[in-house]
Write a structure and sequence with these properties.
The complex is a heterodimer of chains A (349) and B (555). Chain A has 349 residues and is an alpha/beta fold. Chain A has helices at residues 2-20, 42-52, 64-73, 91-96, 137-142, 172-185, 190-199, 208-215, 234-240, 276-287, 289-299, 312-317, 329-347; strands spanning 28-34, 54-60, 82-87, 100-101, 124-136, 163-166, 203-205, 227-231, 251-254, 261-270, 302-303. Chain A has 2 domains: 26-128 and 263-317, Periplasmic binding protein-like II (D-Maltodextrin-Binding Protein, domain 2, 3-Layer(aba) Sandwich); 129-261 and 326-347, D-Maltodextrin-Binding Protein, domain 2. In chain A, strands 1, 2, 3, 4, 5, 6, 7, 8, 9, 10 and 11 form an 11-stranded mixed β-sheet that branches. In chain A, helix 2 (42-52) links the parallel strand 1 (28-34) and strand 2. Chain A is globular, with a radius of gyration of 22 Å. Chain B has a two-stranded antiparallel sheet with strand order 1-2. In chain B, helix 6 (136-160) crosses helix 8. Classes of the chains: A alpha/beta (349), B mainly alpha (555).
Chain lengths: 349, 555
């Protein structure tokens, strides 16, 4: 009996093994390299594939920083034709690494110039989102605590032990928040602020998931901190993906002047592609109204194309900062590693 | 030549899929010109990181042995209710993704975990008394949680085959139980204990996810620092130096291990002892205490998971303790719905099938390549002793570095493999192979050569003597090794996230996808998917366990 069991087990293993190795029939294929958070509606991609008689393969390659660095490392034999997901904190590194080919898409004219941060046209803006502090509404109202309105407020004793943020060395969200404080306090003073904030019990974790789900009290993890560094659109996601129907978001963002950092994400055609025309078409597709209107509910980011309409949930619950902090991409590229090391030294060691 | 033949498959495999890509990426890192100032500053970082890596690995290994050795005795000597299930459950942590384990520990020991809430209510405390997350304790506990199964399997296996008559003989001659243990039992078990300690140490030494998620940013092992330097800072020279330090340490430990094992070459006839129920009071106390420890350590954190996948918190947030709680199956239902119409939605069954396919192939590759090598290593000559430590290097090498090596090596002809569905099980086999070899070797070494000689003298051809004599004795160890390979692949995240196409994710990848978006349903689905992963892995281990062939039947 046991013999039969073993041989049938081996047979099953072999069958599944062969199953795993099934080659896929290929027509022309376009590869898009991107970060792990990339999402898109299936029907849009299927329509694009039909229209252009192409198979689009997505290569999710880690968080935003990892994905870009993998693209840079493999530049001698590129892994893909198109790369999506370079943000403004990585913009100059990406352009300097010389891994993109310039392209001037017809739709670029309609996109506001404030998002067109790369004059060489290597990288074209697709979407933006604001990194802001989110708060747990109930926590503050139950204690009749006022919501902090500026960075300096967070140093007050009543907000002791209340903020959780991501490590700027491992998370783009954490880095964006650090950059906002640098824009506000200036290069000479931001470290003093962090010293004080650190002694007021700020908690640092390594990634957004941990900060939001394990430490933040306003989301499903019911953690200890009522303030978290997240996105201005996160409250909308709390409503859309609520376990019970909500009429109001349980969380909200602090969008006071200069407290949010605007992340703009870019797409580019990778140098050495053998499908230049198709790659151009895919970039056009990403800037087009359909894709731009799909993004908010898939990735919780805002479209850069002004013709794209926002979904009603987004209009109602998501917030944007009217006056986000900003730093010149060249300045960020020149100093980011220095800033991160200095921050690590002051806060973590 | 005949002696080299068993090495051929495994060495060719490791050269192509391990040594070549890793040397390429290290070479690339070292040949980039680095600015001198940066490197000087880096020296401090290298020193402190190496020290912490070493320190936490030693502590973790010690604690794992402390929990694992009595456990191994328990499983090899006593019969009790639910033994098989418990045995399977202890192996589950090994393949759970870190974020999921962190969620489990958090539900138990976190600021709002059961323990803290209980203590707060009992003693009317102001603040949560247990501060667990982001401490060294959390790292150590998670390492024990993950790796105790290695000690249970390897040492338990050896202990159950230890001839009790040896100890009985010593006792008859007047030795105290303590003396019997140190002079008889321990020397015979030493190879298995060393092998287990070595594997546990290497896993702790290269720890990554546990440090990031449970330890938090205040702690960094070499592997974490390699990740930060190579993928976030793009400081390849520093990453290369750190990788080399990690490899050198691994090699040093492997050499130390080999020399220790060679010296304790105990060739003892193996018998399968039959485990029995606890009779005396002290035995009962031992079994009871041990079971309580194992339940607390393994069952509680894991039970926290399915519970959080079935419980819905009403939006009564803000209050510290009072939460409206209700049971729900919604998260499981949601798993089968693609609510947002996303291209990357994968039905759980498909993720399960992907995971199983990769795990099966990994198991086949590593057993086929590992078995011949382990047989040679069981009776080592000069060649074997020299090659032995090198075999362990893949286990200690940085997974991040290897992943980058794959990217720059397998993205061009003639090695255009990066898109091949085979590359994932291949990468998993690189990790599993040293493991398989290490867990087979003690079992194979315990078979005296005379057994096969006797069979061959009586006219059995080598094939028949192998199947009739060796196989029945090692079938159990083979299944254990195969199970390890299978579970390593099931839980592996790094290589899979690097190489898998997003439309074919494995279960851990699917879990991470849910965790990367805000919202209660996403969180619930992650927990539901993790509970499914736990369930199927426990079941598959139980199935493997049913297949084992007790050696007694054949002796």
């Amino acid at each position: 009996m046991k013999k039969y069991l073993i041989s049938s087990l081996i047979l099953i293993l072999l069958v599944t093994a062969c199953n795993a190795a099934q080659p896929t029939a290929q027509t022309t294929s376009l590869t898009v390299m991107t970060h792990d958070s990339f999402e898109v509606s299936a029907d849009l991609v299927v329509a694009f594939e039909k229209e252009n008689n192409v198979k689009v393969t997505f290569l999710k390659s880690g968080d935003a920083g990892s994905a870009l660095n993998k693209a840079i490392l493999s530049k001698n034999a590129p892994l893909a034709d198109v790369f999506y997901g370079v943000d403004n904190t990585f913009l100059s590194r990406a352009v300097d690494a010389d891994i993109f080919e310039p392209y001037n898409p017809p739709l670029l004219k309609t996109i506001p110039t404030i998002y067109q941060l790369d004059s060489t046209l290597n990288l074209l803006p697709v979407d933006y989102g604001d990194v802001c502090i989110n708060y747990d509404k109930a926590y503050f109202s139950n204690r009749s605590l006022s919501i902090p309105q500026k960075f300096e407020d967070l140093l007050n004793p009543e907000y002791k032990d209340m903020l959780v943020m991501e490590n700027p060395a491992t998370s783009s969200t954490g880095l964006a928040f650090l950059l906002a404080t640098i824009a506000h306090f200036g290069q000479d003073n931001y470290l003093n602020y962090w010293k004080s904030l650190n002694s007021n019990g700020m908690v640092v974790v390594d990634d957004w998931s941990t900060a939001y789900y394990t430490n933040f009290s306003g989301s499903s993890g019911h953690g200890p901190q009522p303030l978290v560094v997240s996105y201005a659109s996160s409250p909308a996601a709390e409503v859309i993906y609520a376990t019970t129907k909500l009429s109001e978001a349980p969380t909200a963002s602090i969008t006071a002047e200069g407290t949010c950092f605007r992340q703009v994400e870019f797409v580019g055609i990778l140098k050495g592609t053998t499908h230049r025309t198709l790659a151009e078409k895919f970039v056009d597709f990403m800037l087009g109204v359909q894709f731009q209107e799909d993004m908010p509910l898939q990735m919780f980011v805002y479209p850069v194309n002004p013709d794209a309409k926002l979904p009603p949930e987004f209009v109602k619950y998501a917030q944007v900062s009217t006056t986000p902090a900003s730093l010149d991409p060249g300045n960020i590229a020149a100093n980011r590693d220095k800033w991160i090391s200095a921050w690590t030294e002051v806060v973590l060691h | 030549m005949r002696r080299l033949l068993p090495w051929l498959g495994a060495s060719a495999f490791l050269v192509l899929f391990f040594f070549y890509p890793i040397l390429r990426i290290l070479w690339m890192g070292l040949t980039i010109k680095a600015d001198q100032g940066g490197l000087n500053q880096a020296l401090g970082l290298i020193g402190s990181t190496t020290w912490f890596t070493f320190y936490q690995a030693c502590l973790s290994t010690f604690l794992t042995l402390l929990v694992g050795l009595p456990g191994a005795y328990l499983f090899s000597h006593f019969e009790f209710h639910g033994k098989r299930t418990l045995n399977a459950i202890t192996a589950v942590p090994f393949m759970l993704p870190t974020v999921v384990v962190a969620a489990g520990f958090n539900a138990l020991l976190g600021p709002r975990g059961w323990f803290n809430v209980l203590l707060i209510n009992l003693f009317h405390l102001e603040k949560a008394p247990i501060n667990f997350v982001h401490t060294l304790g959390a790292i150590l506990l998670a390492h024990v949680f993950y790796n105790t199964t290695i000690v249970l399997k390897l040492v338990g296996n050896a202990w159950s085959q230890l001839d009790p008559r040896l100890g009985q003989a010593a006792a008859t001659l007047g030795a105290t139980p303590k003396r019997v243990f140190w002079k008889v039992t321990f020397p015979v078990l030493r190879p298995a204990i060393l092998a287990a300690a070595m594997l546990v140490f290497l896993f702790d030494f290269t720890s990554f996810g546990v440090i990031l998620v449970l330890g938090g940013p205040h702690f960094a092992t070499l592997e974490v620092e390699i990740f930060i330097q190579s993928l976030q800072m793009l400081n390849l020279p520093l990453a290369a130096i750190l990788s080399i330090i990690q490899i050198v340490f691994t090699l040093a430990f492997s050499i130390l291990y080999s020399s220790l094992v060679v010296r304790s070459n105990a060739n003892v006839k193996s018998v399968m002892i039959i485990s029995r129920k606890a009779i005396t009071w002290s035995e009962r106390a031992f079994v009871g205490g041990n079971l309580a420890l194992i339940m607390a350590l393994f069952v509680l954190p894991m039970a926290a998971l399915p519970l959080s996948s079935l419980i819905r918190f009403e939006p009564a947030m803000g209050q510290r303790i009072s939460q409206a709680v209700s049971f729900t199956l919604d998260y499981y239902r949601e798993l089968f719905i693609n609510r947002s119409g996303s291209l990357f939605y994968v039905p759980p069954i498909l993720a399960l099938r992907n995971s199983f396919s990769y795990a099966s192939v990994t198991m086949l590759i590593s057993l086929i390549l590992g078995f011949p090598v382990a047989s040679r290593l069981a009776h080592p000559g000069k060649l074997e002793r020299a090659l032995d430590p090198i075999l362990m290097v893949p286990l200690g090498a940085s997974a991040v570095t290897l992943g980058l090596g794959y990217i720059i090596t397998f993205n061009q002809t003639p090695l255009l493999l990066l898109r091949s569905p085979w590359l994932v099980p291949i990468a998993h086999s690189v990790i599993a192979l040293p493991f398989v070899i290490r867990s087979l070797q003690p079992a194979l070494a315990s078979i005296p050569k005379e057994y096969r000689m006797a069979a061959e003298v009586m006219g059995a051809d080598p094939m028949r003597s192998w199947f009739a004599v060796v196989w029945p004795l090692v079938s159990r160890a083979t299944l254990a090794a195969g199970t390890f390979a299978f579970t390593i692949s099931l839980g592996e995240f790094g290589a899979a996230s690097l190489l898998v196409r997003p439309e074919n994710p494995t279960l851990p990848l699917a879990i991470y996808r849910f965790l990367s978006q805000p919202g209660g349903v996403n969180y619930g689905q992650a927990m539901a998917m993790a509970s499914l992963l736990m369930l199927v892995t426990s079941l598959s281990i139980l199935v493997f366990d049913r297949l084992r062939i007790p050696g007694m039947n054949y002796l």
